[in-house]
């Protein structure tokens, strides 16, 4: 097996363990490259099917290309899509820096969706290489009733023995892409021919490397207009992937605060 | 350009764990390694410098990893972190495992997945408690490729003498464990000596830098030459296919192979290897692949089954030896039941005995009554049902496990079967050169003569549920109706056929196996054979069913444990409550109620005569033969 085969096999294994143990469960779908890979892996794991709902926590502020992508592939991939709204920014903690406060809407929207549908597990496409806080994550990561992440008391995760039994009231985040890097995602997208939102490709010398809400995501300088060019660019770049995500850089601990409160 | 990037997918990814005593500089070494190999983005370096100067220090490389606010403030790594870097030769993912004793659980979680390790030792402090403990855990986790980094050489004036002392001490310890470290490197994480570039400060050292040493370590490879192990995760029926999904742990699985599923011992051939969006259908599957297969026969397979080839199957056992590390706050208890998770198998287990607790400082073993948090111990584990396993030394991924108490993972360990037999012999056919001879009399002609078919009527239920009473009453009524019928009862069989068996789990299983085989012979001979045994394990009853085939009818004699205890016809519950009987079903040993019995009679609710009537009616319906069918069959014999 080459490296992509190994990553794929590991993620497939994780998705199946989650599907066996956690019910009901949903997968987050944000139409970005990572969550598309995640849906693809689910179809690999379950032989063409995605046997649980995919959840779009809609901030209402995504790019229009992303909404178009959603509408097209929801039916093409045979997904059971649940759309869930987010509360207005006025209801968010005013103590947060502006962009983090905006991002917090998504956390609140997710919490609402979990409550409404009674999900015990949420599959999220975070990766350890994205951000140092995420590097500390477990594949199966418990949250308490309020969605809080207790990073001081994380469960032991030995070999592939994921912790899949939880007391009532615990909610689990499952992270099948934890071990992937940004480059791996692109190499796999190319190999498998997975569709993408066109915003990733360069227009007028700029492209989006990471897609979030329109108001708090900025493009990076780039001429890469094909997957091959993006891959070549990533192999030499030193700019971090989330450089265009405003909420990561406002304060030294912004991201830690967001995450302990339930942000992905 | 495409060619170049394509090559990258083939570059091996080596998982590297960095371990060592708290404050010996693991995170600093890694931060520096990232910086020197160009893995840190410039804004990250700027952020590090800013954060460090805000705290009034020089650039603190460990901040690259210690992302948590709490970690920065206390300067202690709380959890393992993962970061990536590349040498000219290959790609690495580094797992930085916390050294602090409090976080052993996190260190093990990080280290358990590593291929190679760097053990960091402070040149000034030398080998400390956690250095030895981590060295021991590397040994236990099976990581044999180890580089030792003697860090903070700048603090001992780059002294060759001091390096030699520390080096001798750690190498001696590791060699006692059976780990021969590949290399020992003097370095300084803080000032970058011997990380990616050769240090000018230690001209006396002519060995490799850290990066060179890492490139020289062999990353472990999954072995295709080992016997096949396919661990079943689940069975899917999303469409017309019944797909058995799982992972190849070792060996190669090919379309057409006959696969034996343990512990249920069912065999079938692989019809297809299923996949989605992979072009042509694969004909074989290799170690590490998460695959799905379909079989040519719809045998019973479930999560936890281990597929193998018929020869070279895993061992079957209810008992094994383990070396384990205890992670829970609460000490290990011999009175408690834990959940064993071994691959995808689960079983309730008890720690039967503690052989010794290992002092990781001196490697000496001590007898002990208990195993406390963060201790390593050798124990004997007793399972409530048969599990399929391999020794850790043989096939690692089928020989390691965790124990769960409630919702918490309390231990991880590796398996040895030293002194314990493979119990497959109790289940497998040993006789060879057997050719079964066909009878000239068919079951149909026997049924015609007897006016009924032969069958195994398997009663199961708690002690006191009424199995024996009902069996004798049913036998009497059927006999009066002209049936050839006989009851096999627990205590009667133990007087003769099974006189050599005790009450250990193995002996109980063997007791039931023999009863099942004998009952099946009775059925073959055309008789109705009623068995009245608690037979608490579903697996044992399934085996009896497999032996008798369609003639097997499972009848659940149901009564709750309170009712049975009130009845207590043999005074056994009283003894069990007093602790005079160990492992008494329903009290201190499990009873697995049948999932889909052919018939359930509830003796707690219905009077005994009604229950007898219910059973007799059912049996007449199932086994009685009509006059027309009888005539037709007798003609055939003539």
Architecture blueprint of SSEs:
The complex is a heterodimer of chains A (264) and B (638).
Chain A: H1 3-21, E1 25-28, H2 33-45, E2 54-58, H3 64-76, E3 81-85, H4 98-117, E4 121-123, H5 132-135, E5 140-143, E6 171-174, H6 182-192, E7 206-207, E8 220-221, H7 227-236, H8 254-260
Parallel strand pairs in A: 1-2, 1-4, 2-3, 4-6
Antiparallel strand pairs in A: 5-6, 7-8
Helix pairs in contact in A: 1-2, 6-7
Chain B: H1 2-10, E1 13-20, H2 26-36, H3 42-54, H4 69-74, E2 81-86, E3 91-96, H5 104-111, E4 116-122, H6 129-141, E5 145-151, H7 160-177, E6 183-186, H8 210-216, E7 229-236, E8 243-250, E9 253-254, E10 258-262, E11 266-274, E12 284-285, E13 290-295, E14 306-308, E15 315-326, E16 338-342, E17 345-358, E18 365-366, E19 376-389, E20 400-405, E21 408-416, H9 424-427, H10 443-450, E22 455-460, H11 467-480, E23 485-489, H12 490-495, H13 505-524, E24 528-532, H14 538-548, E25 552-558, H15 561-567, H16 572-577, E26 599-602, H17 608-623, H18 627-637
Parallel strand pairs in B: 1-3, 1-4, 4-5, 5-6, 22-24, 22-25, 23-24, 25-26
Antiparallel strand pairs in B: 2-3, 7-8, 7-14, 8-13, 9-12, 10-11, 10-14, 11-13, 15-19, 15-21, 16-17, 16-20, 17-18, 17-19, 20-21
Helix pairs in contact in B: 6-7, 10-18, 11-17, 13-14
Structure keywords:
heterodimer, A: 264 residues, alpha/beta, Rossmann fold, two-stranded antiparallel ribbon, 8 helices, 37% helix, 11% strand, B: 638 residues, Elongation Factor Tu (Ef-tu), domain 3, six-stranded antiparallel barrel, 18 helices, 29% helix, disordered N terminus
How large, in whole angstroms, is the Cα Rg of chain A?
18 Å
User: In percent, how helical is the residue content of chain B?
Assistant: 25-40%
How large, in whole angstroms, is the Cα Rg of chain B? Answer: 32 Å
Q: List segments of chain B where confidence is low: pLDDT < 50 over at least 5 consecutive residues.
A: 1-7, 68-79
Q: What's the helix-strand series of chain A?
A: HEHEHEHEHEEHEEHH
Count of all domains of chain A: 1
Q: Uncertain runs of chain A with pLDDT below 50, 5 residues or more?
A: none
Instruction: Return the CATH topology of chain A.
Output: Rossmann fold
Largest beta-sheet characterization of chain B: 6 strands, mixed
Mean pLDDT of chain A: 85
Count of individual helical segments of chain B = 18
- Share in β-strands of chain B: 25-35%
Oligomer: heterodimer
Biggest interface between chains: A-B, 64 and 70 residues
CATH architecture of the largest domain in chain B: 3-Layer(aba) Sandwich
Number of strands of chain A: 8
Share of residues in strands of chain A = 5-15%
Specify the CATH architecture of chain A: 3-Layer(aba) Sandwich
The fourth-level CATH homologous superfamily of chain A is HUPs
């Amino acid at each position: 097996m080459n490296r992509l085969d190994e990553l794929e096999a590991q993620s497939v294994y994780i998705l199946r363990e989650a599907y066996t143990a956690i019910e009901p469960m949903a997968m987050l779908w944000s139409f970005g490259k990572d969550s598309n890979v995640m849906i693809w892996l689910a179809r690999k794991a379950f032989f063409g099917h995605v046997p649980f709902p995919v959840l779009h926590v809609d901030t209402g502020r995504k790019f229009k290309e992303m909404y178009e992508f959603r509408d097209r592939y929801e039916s093409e991939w045979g997904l059971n899509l649940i759309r869930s709204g987010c509360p207005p920014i006025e209801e968010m903690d005013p103590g947060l820096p502006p962009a983090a406060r905006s991002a917090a809407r998504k956390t609140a929207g997710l919490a609402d969706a979990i409550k409404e549908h009674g999900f015990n597990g949420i599959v999220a496409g975070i990766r350890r290489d994205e951000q140092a806080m995420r590097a500390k994550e477990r594949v199966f990561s418990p949250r308490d009733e309020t969605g809080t992440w207790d990073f001081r008391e994380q469960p032991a995760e030995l070999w592939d023995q994921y912790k899949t039994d939880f007391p009532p009231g615990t909610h689990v985040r499952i992270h099948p892409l934890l071990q992937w890097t940004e480059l791996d995602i692109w190499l796999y997208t190319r190999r498998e021919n997975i569709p993408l939102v066109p915003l990733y490709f360069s227009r007028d010398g700029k492209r989006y490397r990471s897609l979030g809400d329109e108001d708090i995501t900025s493009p990076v300088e780039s001429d890469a207009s094909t997957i091959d060019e993006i891959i070549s660019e990533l192999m030499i770049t030193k700019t971090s992937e989330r450089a265009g995500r405003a909420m990561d850089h406002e304060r030294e601990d912004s991201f830690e605060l967001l995450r302990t409160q339930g942000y992905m | 350009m495409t060619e170049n990037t394509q090559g990258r997918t083939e570059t091996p990814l080596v998982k590297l764990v960095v371990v060592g005593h708290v404050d010996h500089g693991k995170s600093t070494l890694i931060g520096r390694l990232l910086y020197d190999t160009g893995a840190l983005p410039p804004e990250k370096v700027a952020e590090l410098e800013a954060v460090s100067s805000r705290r009034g220090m020089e650039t603190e490389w460990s901040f690259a990893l210690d992302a948590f606010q709490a970690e920065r403030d206390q300067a202690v790594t709380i959890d393992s972190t993962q970061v990536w870097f590349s040498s000219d030769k290959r790609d690495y993912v580094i797992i930085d495992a916390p050294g602090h004793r409090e976080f052993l659980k996190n260190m093990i979680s990080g280290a358990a997945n590593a291929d190679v390790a760097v053990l960091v030792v402070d040149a000034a402090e030398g080998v400390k408690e956690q250095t030895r403990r981590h060295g021991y855990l590397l040994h236990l986790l099976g990581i044999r490729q180890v580089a030792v980094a003697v860090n903070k050489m700048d603090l001992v004036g780059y002294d060759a003498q001091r390096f030699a002392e520390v080096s001798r001490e750690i190498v001696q310890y590791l060699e006692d464990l059976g780990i021969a470290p590949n290399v020992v490197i003097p370095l300084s994480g803080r000032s970058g000596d011997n990380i990616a570039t050769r240090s000018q400060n230690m001209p006396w050292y002519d060995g490799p830098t850290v990066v060179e040493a890492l490139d020289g370590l062999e990353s472990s490879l999954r072995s295709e030459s080992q016997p096949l192990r396919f661990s079943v995760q689940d069975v899917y029926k999303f469409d017309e296919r019944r797909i058995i999904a799982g992972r190849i742990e070792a060996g190669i699985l090919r379309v057409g192979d006959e696969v034996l599923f343990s512990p249920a011992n069912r065999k079938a051939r692989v019809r297809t290897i299923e996949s989605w969006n992979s072009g042509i259908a694969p004909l074989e599957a290799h170690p590490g692949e998460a695959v799905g297969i379909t079989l040519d026969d719809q045998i019973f397979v479930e999560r936890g089954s281990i597929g193998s080839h018929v020869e070279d199957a895993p061992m079957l056992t209810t008992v094994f030896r383990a070396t384990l590390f205890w992670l829970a706050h609460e000490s290990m208890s011999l009175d408690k039941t834990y959940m064993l998770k071994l691959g995808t198998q689960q079983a309730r287990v008890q720690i039967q005995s503690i052989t010794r607790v290992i002092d990781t400082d001196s490697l000496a073993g001590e007898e002990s009554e208990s195993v406390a948090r963060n201790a390593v111990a050798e124990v004997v584990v007793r399972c409530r049902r048969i599990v399929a396993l391999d020794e850790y030394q043989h096939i690692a991924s089928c020989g390691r496990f965790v124990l769960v108490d409630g919702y918490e993972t309390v231990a991880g360990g590796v398996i040895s079967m030293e002194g314990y037999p493979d119990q497959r012999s109790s289940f497998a056919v040993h006789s060879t050169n057997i050719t079964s001879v066909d009878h000239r009399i068919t079951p149909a002609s026997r049924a015609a003569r007897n006016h009924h078919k032969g069958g195994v009527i398997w009663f199961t239920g708690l002690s006191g549920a009424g199995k024996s009473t009902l069996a004798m009453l049913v036998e009497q009524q059927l006999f009066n109706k002209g049936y050839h019928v006989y009851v096999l009862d627990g205590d009667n069989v133990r007087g003769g056929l099974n006189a050599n068996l005790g009450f250990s789990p193995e002996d109980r299983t063997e007791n039931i196996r023999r009863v099942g085989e004998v009952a099946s012979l009775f059925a073959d001979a055309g008789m109705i054979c009623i068995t009245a045994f608690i037979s608490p394990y579903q697996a044992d009853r399934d085996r009896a069913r497999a032996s008798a085939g369609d003639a097997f009818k499972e009848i659940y004699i149901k009564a709750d444990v309170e009712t049975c205890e009130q009845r207590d016809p043999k005074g056994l519950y009283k003894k069990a409550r007093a602790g005079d009987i160990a492992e008494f079903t329903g009290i201190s040993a499990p009873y697995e109620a049948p999932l889909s019995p052919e018939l359930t009679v509830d003796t707690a609710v219905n009077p005994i005569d009604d229950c007898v009537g219910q059973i007799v009616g059912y049996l007449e319906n199932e086994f009685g033969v009509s006059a027309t069918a009888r005539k037709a069959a007798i003609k055939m014999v003539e």
